[in-house]
Design brief:
Organism: Brevibacillus borstelensis AK1
Radius of gyration: 21 Å
Mean pLDDT: 89
Largest sheet: 7 strands, mixed
CATH architecture of the largest domain: 3-Layer(aba) Sandwich
CATH superfamily of the largest domain: Response regulator
Keywords: Amino-acid transport, Signal, Transport
Family: Belongs to the leucine-binding protein family.
Structural class: alpha/beta
Protein name: ABC transporter substrate-binding protein
Helix content: 40-55%
Order of helices and strands: HEHEHEHEHEHEHEHEHEHHEHHHEEEE
CATH topology of the largest domain: Rossmann fold
Pfam families: Peripla_BP_6 (PF13458)
Amino acid sequence: MKKQKTMAFLATVVALGTALAGCGGGNAGGGGGNASGGEQPAPQSGGNTGSSSGGALQKIVIAAVGPMSGQYSDYGSTAKAGAEYALKQNQEKFKALGFDVQMLTQDDQADPKQGVAVAQMLISNPDVLGVVGHVTTGASITASAQYEQEKLVMVSPSSTGSNLTDEGKKVVHRICARDDQQGSKAAIYAKNQLGVKSAYIVHDKQAYGQGLADEVKKQFEKDGVTIAGYEGITAGEKDYSAVINQILAANPEMIYFGGYYSDAGILIKQAREKGYKGVFMGGDGYDSADLVKIAGADNANNVIFTSTVGDLSATEEGKKWISEFESSTGNKVGIFTSFGYDSMNVMLHGLEEAIKANNGQKPTREQVLDAVHKTKDFQGQFVKVTFNEKGDNEFASVYVYKYENGQKVFVGEAK
């Protein structure tokens, strides 16, 4: 086992060397038309370059980390696209301060073990002063243990697991809502707005999915909703007949599944084919057009899910931003584009404050960490950010969506 870990680490070091020599890698696209393969990487200098005044620019690297390949690449690639766009808009400002700020993309494959390997690589690069990511809870938890040792700050756009910040690591921050917020509000919505009196809860045995399911179960029990069953399934399987048969025998009004769209789509399709007529509900892991493709448009009708990201097109300002982003990058806005954008802007704000506090000199990782941790009333494009002592955003909200005729439809904020 030790030999395997060593080999994996060496292979990852080689991958980092390639990324540093080139454009940062990790351009794999995701589902639902949100592929980021057409993105242009942030300019890379490979070292100090001359400024317009003839001086040398000092290099600073902000890493963007998430699943850039595999079945969850939609999440990582869209967050990366938003982060890259934010950096591009701010690079000239930092050049005026004497710094060439670059972005280095890394693929953790939504795998906790790979998250550790990526974190160790980033720590070994002294120019890396911050991390936008990780995108999934499991990888964020394992990577954060590495970052904590080196005081390397992270700002996640989308890792919702409650224990991520409850573990007390100072380096951990996120701009999105926690699972205990998302889960409890989902359960309250199901009871009060959908009239659900009984529910069968299923999860994928992973940090995000099970954590979310547990919070829903807790709130349902508090509110007197009958829990008809509670089961875990193995993510990535193709046949969930065993658990579906148990659900049908229990005849609940709702199936709540904590997990990602790839498994949710199969579960929905197979349950509908077996005659289940009740409500399906889940969290932001359902937010992908691939769920509709997997389940089938008819089967996905009225599937309801909560999300930490609101409707970007609800305002004229939001519509304008979408248009500018898509025309500038050639990419469609995806699930975490907006929060990748705001997470990078939070990071860059902290970096700028750390530079100022260090008399215009390149700050240390700890100085950047302290500045990011002190973020208060920072108005991002889509979310206002104030970090509490744990690193949670005091202004984070939860929203409700549903699928209708194959399209995602915004319902409103979950109250």
